[in-house]
Amino acid sequence: MSRVRHDPPGLRALLDTIETQRSGCEMAGSPLYADVLDAVASDVVAGGTCARVLAPLADAPFGDAVLLRFLAAVHLLVLEGAEPDLASQYPSAGGQHGPAVGSLFVAAVARHEDRVVGLLDLGVQTNEVGRSVALLGGYLELARAGLPLRVLEVGASAGLNLGFDRFRYEAGDQAFGPAESRLRFVEPWLGAAPDLDVDLVVASRRGCDLDPIDPTTPAGRLRLRAYVWPDQPPRRARLDAAIAVACEHPVAVDRADAVSWLDAQLAEPSPGALTVVVHSIVFQYLPPDDRRAFLALLDDAGARASHDAPLAWLRMEPGGDRAETRLTTWPRGATELLATSAFHGPPVAWQLARPVSA
Ligand SMILES: C[S@@+](CC[C@H](N)C(=O)[O-])C[C@H]1O[C@@H](n2cnc3c(N)ncnc32)[C@H](O)[C@@H]1O
Fold it and tell me: CA of 324: how far to CAs of 77, 149, 249, 317, 341, in Å?
């Protein structure tokens, strides 16, 4: 964009980040946020409130997801009822996306500048239970070994994906999960699905997060909904269904950082169970030293794993413009690519041709 070329470096970086996020939202099916971010870019160029709010974060790496935090902050105001004008354009609040959405968004930021700046401190807490579809195939592979699973999720946020076995998944004449589940995934795989006819027992489940969200409280639920893009009703519906499941079966998510928590969890062996360390869309948020420490912990624990106390590392993380789900199992120490998918899950392309053995 020619307007960017002459801007100071900080502003140029910010406009580039806005443009990257704008096209990301457009490609991922949110024309509403694409329009909003167009208006935000214009306001930044004009030196408006958006420039003031975002300038201190202009040099943050894209992985800090500043724009997603910004969009979620304003969405929270809408869902709280503090922004009826903008709500009239947000389907998540009963409105309809129209051409005024961008200017109404910028006006809302101007009206609530201090609150938006405060909310920007919160990290990205997009809980996406569609990711359970990609992860399920890994859990099923592990369950074939015949041991109950001890599930440890880092970056679990509200812990919704820890309830993966309480959701229903249907593919052809196979299904997994309770038929009466509030959350149903119907044909979420592209082409062949993993074999769903497996007995899977979760012996225990626990998560950690820097800032856990309690989905059983009204404030927690509102925050979770604020991270779902306002013009994506199917994602909102599955979030609400997963929240209902979590309210019936609350799970423990400890307030802790990934490395110290995993260190403590893996310190003691767990004979008679298969320990699964799992995460989805979390690794990018760990500082490089923490990533190294995390991998070293897994290597150590892997070296101590046995056939009576095996270990697995199941993760769904970005691999280019898709998400990749991979599984490493110990004592064998082998890694397999299980699935590729959209970042929010379905449709999931199952990639594993033959079963994994521990
Ligand atoms: C994008 S959310 C993903 C949430 C969930 N895993 C999912 O896929 O629905 C990333 C989560 O990682 C958490 N997180 C980031 N850095 C962390 C750290 N060092 N230790 C623990 N959790 C962390 C954030 O608080 C946030 O809840």
Answer: 34, 22, 28, 6, 7
Quick check: 35 and 50 in contact, CB under 8 A?
no
Residue 6: per-residue pLDDT: 45
Task: Reduce the DSSP state of residue 336 to 3 states and report it.
Answer: strand
d(CA 67, CA 3): 20
Q: Tokens 């996406």 — which residue?
A: 128
User: CA-CA-CA-CA torsion for 212, 216, 220, 222, nearest 10 degrees?
Assistant: 150
DSSP per-residue codes, 279-295 = EES-GGGS-HHHHHHHH
pLDDT at 174 over 80: yes
Report the C-alpha gap between 81 and 97 in whole angstroms: 17
- Using the atom order of ligand 1, give the atom closest to the CA of residue 157: 27
State how far the Cα of 107 lies from the Cα of 260, in Å rounded to an integer.
43
Closest C-alpha to ligand 1, atom 2: 125
Per cent of the chain over pLDDT 90 is 86
Write down the pTM of the prediction. Answer: 0.92
Closest CA to 325 of 339, 344, 311, 346: 339
Ligand 1 lining (C-beta closer than 6 Å)? 123-128, 131, 154-157, 161, 208-211, 257-258, 280-282, 285-286, 290
Digit-coded pLDDT (tens) for 213-261? 999 999 999 999 999 999 999 999 999 999 999 999 999 999 999 999 9
